[in-house]
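Q: I have two molecules that I believe assemble together. Could you output structure tokens for the complex as a whole instead of separate predictions?
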Amino acid sequence: MEVTIVGIKWDEILITGDPIILGSQIAILLTSLGIIGGLTYLKKWKWLWREWITTVDHKRIGIMYIVAAVLMFFRGGMDGLMMKAQTARPEMSILDSQHYNEVFTAHGVIMILFMAMPFLIGLMNVVIPLQIGARDVAFPQLNALSFWLFFSGAMLFNIAFVVGGAPDAGWTSYFPLAGKEFSPGIGNNYYAISLQIAGLGTLMTGINFIVTILKMRTKGMTLMRMPMFTWTTLITSVIIVAAFPIFTVALALMTFDRLYGTHFFTVAAGGSDMLWANLFWLWGHPEVYIVILPAFGMFSEIISTFSRKQLYGYKSMVVSIVAIAVLSMLVWVHHFYTMGSGALVNSFFSITTMMIAVPTGVKMFNWLFTMRKGRIKMTTAMLWSLAFVPNFVIGGVTGVMLAMGAADYQYHNTLFLVAHFHYVLIPGVVFAVFAGLYYWWPKMFGFMLNEKLGKWHFWLFVIGFNVTFMPMFFLGLNGAVRRAYTYSAESGFAPLFMLSAVGSVILAAGFAVFCYNIYWSIRYADRNISSDPWDARTLEWATSSPVQHYNFAKLPEVKSLDAFWYMKKNNEGITLKDEEIEEIHMPSNSGLPFLMCVAFGIVGFFLIFEWHLLAAVSTVLIIAGLIYRSFDYNDGYHIHKDEIRKTESTWKKMEGKVNNHVS
Amino acid sequence: MEKSTERFPLTHVFGFVLSLVLTFVAAWVALEMNLSFTIVMWIIGTLAVIQAGLQLFMFMHMTEGEDGKVNIINIAFMVFCAVVIVVGSIWVLTSGHAAH
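A: Yes, here they are, computed for all two components at once.
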């Protein structure tokens, strides 16, 4: 029965009839009720609004990004486990083919765009202003808006599978499959609209960090004295600004095709389905470097700190990341050699792709030479960085194999490719964000994550990762295709698939230990640690842990690379004299970014359901927010000297040294 | 460049005259020469690009101020991206089997 009001089919909104989805719906309902009930019972609503939702503090925004990313990691990981369970044995029937399509689509989109990106952007937010000796990013309220737009997009995408139907055309959403003709439901609207909203947030982040890094560095910090993580963040931001508009346009054209019947990508009326693949990867390949470069920066910081040496080949590192950034715009066709663009095109892109291995190789050797003759401390963060090197090289070398256009005709669309990009993205990004989290956790919260649990997390995760994905290289070479929900017993794939499934369970166990570690450390970890527990080298460790909201009472002055290391060594610039304290100008909190998140969420939801009238009307909400912002003359506030004096005296002796490490 | 407010603005006049010349040449090529449409488009397109570049340096103060170098890098990178996206897409989508 169809009941329609303004074109709304009420009986089609909630997905019904699948026990797994019914279970999820009940779980989501109970979790939501639990959160609402818990916040009400503990009387935390005001606290949540005042301290977190309206905050413009880069550190808190960063922490919210990271929390969201860990939750998304869980969601994407569950999708991965479901796929592994389905393919563990031949002819399994845990998921049917449609459901499997939806699961691998969600897994891909969530892991790249809603896990890797926010995790890295979160760490960038926490660390970068501190590393360059600034008090916040250039546009603090825009930064909050970035987060809330990401959150809006992520939440829209995440409700798809219970409300209205999940997208099912893969994370690449190739036309013609993703078009209205072959995917008539609203599932793929979720892809077009929610990624558009989240992408706006990412673009703003890119602009924000370019301006922050170019304009807000503290006195004496020239470009060539910037820490490596700051350098990679700058270059990443440049790639974001160059590449994300392409995705914005491509998604807008996709939206027009699906919602309003245009024919940009549909063959029927003279459009080109290949144009989608072309535009998608024009953004998609730089996107790979958007997630890998900040990770490279984190490894550089961690390896340098725990080898107790300056980063080897700093200048060649900078040249390498700039070269990677330029080359990243020139390799996109290697994602669709088999589309058949002709020998010259494929050869050109084979060569550019192989060229990327050169600067990446330079960086690898620089990390190895940084460790050479260093006094290496085997902390959890360092272990992740050490494991990154060989695992990432496996991903890189198989990447060079795939780079050859002619050979790719054999590898493409097999699990060999899937294994390759998991070997690049997991050691490259996931190991990095774990390393970064263990490393910067004390800076964010004032206590460390447990190192012993951290090592359990590390070993389970790394072993599980290899057991999961190494067999997939061989499955792929034997001809097992990707995105296939099942296979026959006669194919002979069963043992390796089973091994891979076992590996995924070990991987999940590693993640569980990680979550337990967070819980354990929040409850029991020693709070009595110094502001510089790792004896680190860069400016974020020159202030207290957790960092006071104005970051630095007195902005530090930089005289060399590894500024804080030399400040400690020469004992200069780390004391604070009473007369040096001045009032500090800080930005005010604002509820507007969150309200814009709600407004974009509402408009996005209506567009996804193709309720055009409601969507058009509710767009007023967004415009009202923009107008309100135009007349917002709040210039922030000043922190009084007494307050600064009081805050500073809790963590450092005035006139004295930084309190020593006591735990 | 900053001193040019005091002296006779030679570069500005030179740029203005050059712009006029380029514009009239373009008009003359399009209206008076009996060339095929494609060739006309190529010639006036080239002239337009030259004039845009000329104006960036002569009137848009691109090299002036503390951000002069940054501006040049920005514009070079922007041109690089635009060329890669447009020319690259056309090349990829019109060669080989993709053309059929």
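A: One point stands out. Chain A touches chain B through 22 residues (CB under 8 Å).
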